Amino acid sequence: MQYSAPETIESALKLLESDDDARVMAGGTDLIVQMTSGMRSPSHVVDIKRIPELCGVVQTADGGWKIGAAVPGAELNEHVELKRDWPGFVEATDLIGSMQVQGRATPVGNLCNASPAGDAVPGMVAAGATVTVAGSNGFRDVAAHDVPAAPGRTNLEKNEFVIAVNLPPKPPNSGDAYLRFIPRTEMDIAVVGTGVFLAFGESGHVREARIALGAIAPTVVFCTEAADALIGSRLEEEAIEAAVLAARNACNPIDDKRGTAEFRVHTVGVLIKRSIAIATQRAKRQVGMD
Amino acid sequence: MSKMHITTSINGDTTEFLAEADQTLLSALRDNLRLTGTKEGCGSGDCGACSVRVDGRVVCSCLMLAPEAQDRAIETIEGMADGDNLHPVQRRFLEEAALQCGFCTPGFLIAARDLLDRNPNPTETEIRFWLAGNLCRCTGYDKIVRAVQKAAEDVRG
Ligand SMILES: Cc1cc2nc3c(=O)[nH]c(=O)nc-3n(C[C@H](O)[C@H](O)[C@H](O)COP(=O)(O)OP(=O)(O)OC[C@H]3O[C@@H](n4cnc5c(N)ncnc54)[C@H](O)[C@@H]3O)c2cc1C
Ligand code: FES
Ligand code: FES
């Protein structure tokens, strides 16, 4: 195996093009485990952590955020302004592993590893994230929920890689939240994860909503049906129940040692309600609405 | 495949070594450099026995490739004591009997010192969360947490 740590996006692309079995590495917390266990044996590991543009978090002119693909969870968790705007996304990323894992693991690696249970993914999708993909034809932006194709596989082309996650400017009176269910209290893999984003209008009705479900289907589910059930409502009980029903209908889970399919479908509803409550509280706290 | 020549700083000393591209930093530390204080429990990021600090962040050295160490600053357990003077966290682990077999201890010490460097006044909950990536199969965690609390008092002075 070969290891390279290019310092520009262009040289990283060249290395990927030059070798069909090359693989991008960010934090390596999935990739190195897969390599040492013999699950993957890339002929070339292209480490993207020495590319300066990929190593920072910057606020964009419109008030959104551009998070470099090499930035680990620990750094996001220390970023006060980012956390203030998108606490749900940052908390989702922070749930990944221990403090040691946080020192390396990136949300983009979580997305591109394409595990159905990746915690950062529903948080990112609910926040309305896109990722910027670099390839031989230049750059393109892709909705985060369109990146995973199947467990362990993405929709990226062979020689493409993600250089950043883009979060939109946070609208006024809005909040996001991510919750997961695990059998233990720490250090475990999500049985169900739910990401919720809500923005309220002047009169207190839901103006915008996004709901993302993790670990209940082969890839993250961006559940517009559930979000539509909330939009226009004032989160009356019927609206929330309709969202829960829509989310449960969108589930396509498996039975495994962590939980049965039935348990997962049930838990999605419980976690969505709680995530809605947290997102609402965060949205209202900003304007002192209650 | 020829080996890679890596230059890095380990506990403040410029160090050079040859590594396979797919070797972990843990293996390079133990097998190439004979710095065997850093332990291998699981090799998969779960136990924290292999914890080291890299450019000021604690990571599992089993989840880092040796060539990644190029031009980084690595801190291992071998650099924690100042000559014969133990770091407060080391001294308190001894005094509070926070170890039995000692296999997990270097990892706990590296993680605990990093916590106290960042926050010399952590709550018990903060200590337990910070150390959630370090597993001990014999001592039990209460003594370890108590030792970190005592060390925190020492650090605060
Ligand atoms: C002890 C332990 C606990 C964990 N706990 C959790 C947990 O609680 N929740 C959870 O979701 N995950 C968990 N994980 C898994 C892992 O830490 C996360 O998925 C992490 O976010 C992966 O990020 P990384 O930067 O380390 O990815 P890497 O290992 O570097 O990469 C992962 C995959 O994505 C690809 N990739 C990486 N970056 C890019 C890019 N920029 N463009 C294209 N492809 C790319 C790689 O080729 C590889 O296939 C845990 C892992 C360990 C070891
Ligand atoms: S040996 Fe690295 S975490 Fe267990
Ligand atoms: S003292 Fe034996 S594993 Fe912790």
TrEMBL record, chain A:
Stretches assigned to the FAD-binding PCMH-type domain: 1-172
Keywords: FAD, Flavoprotein, Oxidoreductase
Pfam families hit by this protein: CO_deh_flav_C, FAD_binding_5
Keyword Transit peptide found: no
Signal peptide: none
Keyword field contains Flavoprotein: yes
Gene3D superfamilies associated with the record: 3.30.465.10, CO dehydrogenase flavoprotein, C-terminal domain, Uridine Diphospho-n-acetylenolpyruvylglucosamine Reductase, domain 2
SMART domains found in the cross-reference section: CO_deh_flav_C (SM01092)
Record InterPro entries: CO_DH_flav_C, CO_DH_flav_C_dom_sf, Diverse_Substr_Oxidored, FAD-bd_PCMH, FAD-bd_PCMH-like_sf, FAD-bd_PCMH_sub1, FAD-bd_PCMH_sub2, Mopterin_DH_FAD-bd
Protein name per Swiss-Prot or TrEMBL: Xanthine dehydrogenase family protein subunit M
Biological source species: Hoeflea poritis
Native organism taxonomy: Bacteria, Pseudomonadati, Pseudomonadota, Alphaproteobacteria, Hyphomicrobiales
UniProtKB/TrEMBL annotation, chain B:
Keyword Disulfide bond part of the UniProt annotation: no
Membrane spanning residue stretches: none
SUPFAM superfamilies named among the record's database cross-references: 2Fe-2S ferredoxin-like (SSF54292), CO dehydrogenase ISP C-domain like (SSF47741)
Keywords, alphabetical: 2Fe-2S, Iron, Iron-sulfur, Metal-binding, Oxidoreductase
Residues covered by the 2Fe-2S ferredoxin-type domain: 4-80
A Pfam family: Fer2_2
Leader sequence residues: none
Entry protein name: (2Fe-2S)-binding protein
